[in-house]
Amino acid sequence: MTDLDTALRDLAPLGVLIGWRRIAEGDEGALNRGEISATNLSVRRASGAVRIVARELLRAPDLAIPKGEGGEPIWPRMVVGSLAHDDEIAIAATANAEDYEAIGIDIERAEPLVAETFALVVTDRERAMIGDDAMKATLLFAVKEAVYKAAYPLDRVFLEFADIEVDLDQGVAATKPGRSLTVRYATTLSHVVALAYA
Fold it and tell me: Where does Mg(2+) bind (predicted)?
């Protein structure tokens, strides 16, 4: 069991399944027709990898998971879920739609957020809580990405980072349109993983 396995096991609330895999040569071959239109090999490979993980979680090896108009994955009826990847790791989260309205997940390298991005991601209120801690800013980045992925299918509103306020201590996030979501996160030596759900 890796650090990431342990982190994800502790991250998942009751009823949420989270899985991951290292992106590998050939994962692009897992894409079904119509799932993604990108021609870039690394994008196709990562997109195939996250779908391999999602299909394993759902025990549906032939399931197609196409993208919606906003780039969100289209799940089967009675399933909510989310997909994410960096350049190395593909990760997916799924749950029963009777238990959860929406789920968002994100994974980022556990590296300090660069100053230019820090200013875009962190609101004044959040800055008062985290100060100049660039690692906590990376965590906020991941949490806000997860929140967006959970909120967009519900509200169909494009959110900037400033449209999401996160309270890491309370484990909640609020969006500009007025939606509140629960947030959880886990860190390993190499990665930060964030989960948001309603």
Answer: 106-108
130 labelled binding-site residue: no
Q: Is 51 annotated as a binding residue?
A: yes
Can you tell me whether residue 166 is helix, strand or coil? strand
The verdict on whether residue 159 carries a ligand-binding annotation is yes
Instruction: State which fold the 107-197 domain adopts.
Output: Ribosomal Protein L22; Chain A (3.90.470)
Q: Does the annotation place 149 within a ligand binding site?
A: yes
pLDDT digits (tens, 9 = 90+) for 49-65: 999 999 999 999 999 99
* 88 labeled binding residue: no
pLDDT digits (tens, 9 = 90+) for 179-198: 999 999 999 999 999 999 99
Full DSSP string of 13-54:
PTTEEEEEEE--TTGGGGPPTTS-----HHHHHHHHHHHHHH
Distance separating alpha carbons of residues 174 and 143, to the nearest angstrom: 11
106 is annotated as contributing to ligand binding: yes
pTM over 0.85: yes
Residue 192 tokens, joined: 């930060």
